[in-house]
Each structure stands twice: as structure tokens, then as C-alpha cells.
Amino acid sequence: MERNKKILSGLLVLLLVIIAFEYGFLSRQYKLFPYRYFKNLSPPVKEKKAGLRPVLRPMRKGRWHLSRDGIKNTELSDKDQKQLSKLKAVPYLSGYHAAPPRSGVTEYEKQYAYPGLNLCISGHTPGAYLMDMEGNILHRWGIEYKEVWPESDDLYENGYRTFWQRVHLFNNGDILAIFEGLGLVKLDRDSHLLWSYKGRCHHDLYVDKTGKIYVLTRREIAQRDELHLQGPILDDRITILSPQGKEIESISLIDCFLNSDYASVLDKMKRKGDVLHTNTVEIIEGDLSNNNHVFKQGQALVSIREINTIAVVDLEKQKISWALSGMWKGQHNPTLLKNGNILIFDNRGYQGKSKVIEFDPLTQKIIWSYRSTPENNFFSSTVGVSQRLPNGNTLITETDNGRAFEVMPDNKIVWEYINPYRAGEQKELIATLLDMIRISPNQISFLPKSAPSPDPD
């Protein structure tokens, strides 16, 4: 009798386990209770969509990052420190960066820094803010993804990764903003939506002197015989929009390589997934007298991270006219300077650390560089921006560490800003700083003479 009871108890437990397993499967499949609750609480998980690379779902809204080695928050317990160390093992996690003890403008030498306003994009919110050199916020823009596209699919239903990646500010206060991987919006100075373009826009945009908008987009390709694909890929494109947001043309970068003498560059490309990961587009305009006729007006300078290559695209002929690799790894934000050189953020090409270099595109000679030192640890595995200022200084955005700083030609730091936006129970997490652009005050007309300073979010 006792034995029969044990058998029945065992069978009952087994039956309950099977029922729980089946309900768990159905809950995940059909989003039954408590699917949504646990989905919001769960740590990052990998999701596959359309056969492409698994996507890490971040643990909190926005874009955050892991802590910089060597920074220890004294308010954290040993247990918390160990937990953060475990989190560091997760690749490209969009969250969780231990906050340094300082924040806001931490360095400002007025006699050396270039005066202006700073247009900032922080990963804590889908928005941007304009601040003065002392860190006072003068104006904000922002709009939620669901306000623009309420029919959004499940992947973005809770606002995950719906941050702004890049913006363009107009003189009158209107602003263009990329919802990363999703679309492009134009807002007025009061954040009212003027128009939207849902074309899987990503990473970067450029507005030329005629008002046309050049934005990076992507489409999925299932097969291309000449590429010998092993699965679906993302075909990065330069899409041209009218000032009103209407599509004029969309140009495949893969086609541009295949149509050119640089087709062999694609031999380095993976055969499925995000094979290019283009992260910069800049239209070549202005005085080209210092370029020895290498580049032409209207061509596009692009950065392609996955093959460690920068290239110039002839948009009329839809072919690559120049390409270069080997001097950087995982690079971002090449920009053509007035002297004919190129300034670029090299994310991982300096002994596993970052550097910013200015080089001659003809000779590949490095003219100037800023590198990590023991005194000033400098590294951003993702994103990263550099801007040459009119006084010869360089503004560098160290995205992953939520930091921007201005250096003189001799590498002296004369201005520094550390993102004040925090998360976590002990404010131990810092929002990444996706971009910072220094703007001359005479470039904008919408601010009052004495602009108010709104309280931080």
C-alpha cells in the first residue's frame, strides 16, 4: 500500500511537471499570462528573426552599456560587484554601465575650449537636448516610438531599443531623428510630429545644401547567386528623401561594390546576417581643392564596420570609386576635413582599445591621433564620434562610457562631459552617449536670448 502511494505521488508530480511545461510553452507561443510580466523582468535573451543574427533583448528601456574596467563604484557591495562582472560576459549588451563618481561638465578651460552649444543624444530616452558649455540644458526634443507608429510589432511593444541614434538640427529648431533600425521622424521645435518615414533607417543621416536627406536603410535579401549566401542578409542602402520625407531613390551598397573595381572587398563579407553594418554616410560638399581630385562633389563617404572598410560611393553611377581598409577595426564616423584629410573613430584597432586618427587618404600617413593612455582610459567598442572644431580642437564622443571630451592638437583635455543620466537601485548604471555635436550659436535662431534651463528628466 505504501509503495502504491509513492508511485501515485510520483505520477502526480510528473503530471504536474508536464502540465506546467505545456502551459509554459503555450504561454510563450500565444502570449498567455504571465508571459508579458516575465518578459519584462527577464535578463537579455537571444531572439532570431527571419534567420538573421540573434538579437539581445535589453533588460531595461533605452541604450545602456557595461562598466568600464577599472571603475569601481564604492557604493556597491562585493556581491553587486561580482554580479556586474558576470554581466560583462554578455556581448554587446544594451545596458548596464557602472557610473563614475563624477557627472555633467567635469572639465572646462574656457581659454582653450571652442565656445558653442552641445547637441546631445543620450540612450536613456528617445530624444535629444541642447546644452551650453557649462552643462545647462537650453532645449529638449523627444517623442515615443509608439506615438509615431502605434501599430509597432511585438519586438518594440515595450519601448526596448527605441532610442534615437542620430539627429540633424535645423536653424529654426526643427529636428530629424533616427529611431535606430526603425525609421526617421521630423519634429518641430516643440516636438510636434511633422512627418515620419518607416524605412528601417539606421545609424546615420546627412542633409545636403539643397535640403535632400540621405539616410542609411536596409532591406532583407534571401538570395544572390553571385554572393553564395548561407542565409538571409541585410542589404544596407543609401536612401534619398525629399525635404518632405518622400522617397526619391534607394541605392544598394552591395550593388555599388559589385558594379566597381572593388568587388573583391566583399570577399571578406560574411554570408548571412548583418554582413555590412554600415554606420556612416556623409555627402561630399564644399571646397575640394585640397583633395587632389580623389573625391568629387555629391559622392558619399561611408563606413562599413563588418568588413573594416571606408568607401566613397558615386551615387550617380552607383558604384564604389574608392575604398580603404587595414588601418582600423570596427570603425565609425569618417569625415572629410577641409584640408583634404579624413578624421575617423577607430573603435578596436589600437591593441584592443580605441583611437581617433586624422590621415591623408592618398598616402595613408597619419597626421594626428588621440589614443588611450594609462592616465586617460579611452575605449568604446560600439558607436563613437569625432568632430574637428573650427579652432583645431577635436570633440570626441566615447559612447559606451557615456562621455564626451574636447582635446587640443597636443591631446590636452580642455572640456569633458559625463552623462548624468543613471539607472539602477544605487544609480550604478549610466546611459550611453550616442552623439554630441558642437554647434555655433549663430547657426540656430529659435532660442530666446535668455534661454531657460529645464530640470533634468
Key attributes of the depicted protein:
Neuraminidase, 29 strands, globular, 457 residues, 5 helices, 5-stranded antiparallel sheet, mainly beta
Strand elements, count: 29
The shape, in one word, is globular
Identify low-pLDDT runs: 28-58, 69-77, 86-96
**Could you please say which CATH topology applies here?**
Neuraminidase
Q: Count of DSSP helices?
A: 5
Strand content: 25-35%
Query: What is the H level of CATH, i.e. the homologous superfamily?
Result: TolB, C-terminal domain
Largest sheet properties: 5 strands, antiparallel
Tally the structural domains. Answer: 1
Structural commentary:
By secondary structure, this protein is mainly beta. The chain has one domain: Neuraminidase. The protein is built from 5 helices and 29 strands. The strands form 8 sheets. The chain has a 5-stranded antiparallel sheet, with no helix packed on it. The protein has a 4-stranded antiparallel sheet with strand order 6-5-4-29, with no helix packed on it. Strand 23 and strand 24 (394-398) form a beta hairpin. The longest helix is centred in the N-terminal third of the chain and has 29 residues, at 2-30. 35% of the residues are buried. Residues 28-58, 69-77 and 86-96 have low confidence and may be disordered.
Give a short synopsis of this structure.
The chain is mainly β and 457 residues long.
SSE topology sketch:
Blueprint (H helix, E strand, L loop, with lengths): L1 H29 L4 H7 L4 E2 L7 E2 L21 H10 L16 E5 L8 E6 L4 E5 L5 E6 L2 H4 L15 E6 L5 E5 L3 E5 L5 E5 L7 E3 L5 E9 L11 E9 L5 E6 H6 L19 E6 L16 E5 L4 E6 L4 E7 L6 E5 L5 E9 L2 E7 L6 E6 L13 E4 L5 E5 L4 E5 L5 E6 L3 E2 L5 E2 L2 E7 L18
Antiparallel strand pairs: 1-2, 3-26, 4-5, 4-29, 5-6, 7-8, 8-9, 9-10, 11-12, 12-13, 13-14, 15-16, 16-17, 17-18, 19-20, 20-21, 21-22, 23-24, 24-25, 25-26, 27-28
